[in-house]
Amino acid sequence: MLDQIVDSGVLAGVRVVEMGQLIAGPFCGKTLGDFGADVVKIEPPGAGDPLRNWRMVKDGTSVWWQVQSRNKRSIALDLRSPEGQDIARSLIAEADVLIENFRPGTLEGWGMSPEQLHAINPGLVMLRISGYGQTGPYRDLPGFGVIGESMGGLRHLTGEPGRVPVRCGISIGDTLAALHGTIGVLLALYHRKVSGGPGQVIDVALHEAVFNCMESLIPEYSVFGAVRDAAGSALPGIAPSNAYPCTDGWVLVAGNGDSIFKRLMEAIGRGDLGNDAALANNAGRVARVAEIDAAVAAWTQQRPVAEVLQALAAARVPAGKVYTARDIAEDPHYQARDMLLTQTTRDGYEITVPGIVPKLSGTPGGIRSSAPGLGDDTEAVLREIGVSAEQLAALRQKGVVQ
């Protein structure tokens, strides 16, 4: 419970049961686990969470798994069997938080509706992540993060004008839903603590999490009837902010502040534009954005990335290289801020993983344990809820646990 918080993590003493698979639910569980929560992950016997086999695999396990499932304990439990459902209810009865990202109605079909679970654990905080939410005409449709990005308005804006919409390269819809879910869990836990009241259900839809980050998209449509379209690397309505070519790559330059714009123009030898009264504010610059972008590009394309960044840093103009994985892994700033951590997997090899975000000064997060093998903690967790050795053996014999 929250009143059991100790120095080992701000969420130490908080018990989380994670039923989710793949990305959205498990990313929330990872975030809570990074800050001390005891996360018990329920996986189906046999193959376990499909993420174990996604993308690049070493020694039979995805290296992505090593990040997504750190600080968790794994039990292999058949939730489709009555015995497995009974065990799950026993675990949930002792939990603070339940995370699930099944299609709406799945838990209800297993006899684990919010009403039924709150009857055995009134303080339970229940996070439900789904494609379209637990209500509404689309609730029963299957939904993945990519569909949430599309319906949330993001995919219409990504890519070059007139060309096929592209993804940002990661499952951003799932991650945004997970972060909104994490916020909801922490809000609900805080409310429970300060009010002494019961737990509650947090309903996160993938498309709504994306939509919540779409800035002025709907207000502009509401007031002006404007439908924002894809704009490549530019930021429509804000100038200058774009990607510019160099002799050996690209740089991103954000010169859209009024004083920053003047410094940028001085740095590229275009003081005439910097001192042009018509360009002193953003509205004026937007009207002449093509001219400004051409001036910046004419300067950058004659220079390597390193020279451009050095000159703009001296002028105090925000600019950055387009980083690859190698750039991140070799960057001293990442290393200085502990954003590249080394952990040893349970298979015995070392792997570099992303550090902990956000950084808390008094109760920082950390990696307490590497990602588990399937069912590594089944026996230990079940004994904590009173399952005897004889009962465990019988459950194994039936294939309920692994």
Automatic annotation (TrEMBL):
Signal peptide: none annotated. It comes from the Bacteria. InterPro entries: CoA-transferase_III, CoA-Trfase_fam_III, CoA-Trfase_III_dom3_sf, CoA-Trfase_III_dom_1_sf. PANTHER family: L-CARNITINE COA-TRANSFERASE, SUCCINYL-COA--D-CITRAMALATE COA-TRANSFERASE. It comes from Corticibacter populi. Transmembrane segments: none annotated. This is CoA transferase. GO terms for molecular function: transferase activity. Keywords: Transferase.
